């Protein structure tokens, strides 16, 4: 067999990265690119942040894997720091984002049966149209993105989808068997879709009144991206369950977690859930340092300031090759005017000018630089976008 030996589950831009530092990557031919994707927010602290590399390197010299059959001396400090950051009691460590979502679903169902008293096998979870929570068979079953969903059934029952941003629809969808509302506070893969002001607060009130858990998937929106620790903070909302991933691993390795109070997460008993790699000492050492970086508040502040700067630069593009711009912290969805081209074509043109972005859903590009990016670099990147749009 000749050609690539990789399965065709991705269609990457034709760039082959060989090294990276901060907000920049370098390809195999020595060309440099500003990384405005940041690993879908996994690289919030930039490529190879020195404190994170140091934490990983030091841990590599001690112990990297124990499995949860034994404890390791990094896990409790990581769990304590992360629980404190979230203001919650307990942490259940996993690896990928999809695993955190699956774990959240299991926790919500177990809570429903054991605490709320829902009859076995009947638990329902309300989700939002346009959601993206990962790629497992359960999760794609309640996606309405044909690419993610179609052709992978049979799909698991127990999910009801309602329009994103419509709190009344959430209220109407809740019945006696509903155990949770699972939402992204801002929908990343959908194109940085920001719900109307007050939506999260209203959903929080509804879920509290109706005895249903609010599960916030902050895997892409959380950990500094929007100028706060969590996107829920924008409305002063505290969910019952945080689902975290991506940046929790510092762009070094997959680290995810479910974080909740003991009356919720405490329902899971030994032997009912786990992962060989979840909570391994290397992940825990890196995750602990990530939480320490976030605890300073410095990255949240940077994202807020630079985000305002990014919004100022992007907004004038509306009507000039761009049909809409949505910005939350250092995170933007930019809808490209079809007269200019597709999102993919714009991404390819930007690549030729030294800027890496990723298109989503045809006409949208997402701008999500590492939070260590400089204002001057944002200016330069938006200038390149302007060049592409006015060609
Ligand atoms: C909101 C959200 N949840 C879950 C996931 C899945 O994470 P992973 O790719 O690590 O499984 C993603 C990935 O893009 C995401 O954006």
Automatic annotation (TrEMBL):
Family per similarity comment: Belongs to the class-III pyridoxal-phosphate-dependent aminotransferase family.
Keywords, alphabetical: Aminotransferase, Pyridoxal phosphate, Transferase
Transmembrane intervals: none
Metabolic or biological pathway: Amino-acid biosynthesis; L-proline biosynthesis; L-glutamate 5-semialdehyde from L-ornithine: step 1/1
Cofactor: pyridoxal 5'-phosphate
Superkingdom of the source species: Bacteria
Protein name, UniProt field: ornithine aminotransferase
Lineage start: Bacteria, Bacillati, Actinomycetota, Actinomycetes, Micrococcales
E.C. code: 2.6.1.13
Entries under Pfam families matching the protein: Aminotran_3 (PF00202)
Record keyword Transferase present: yes
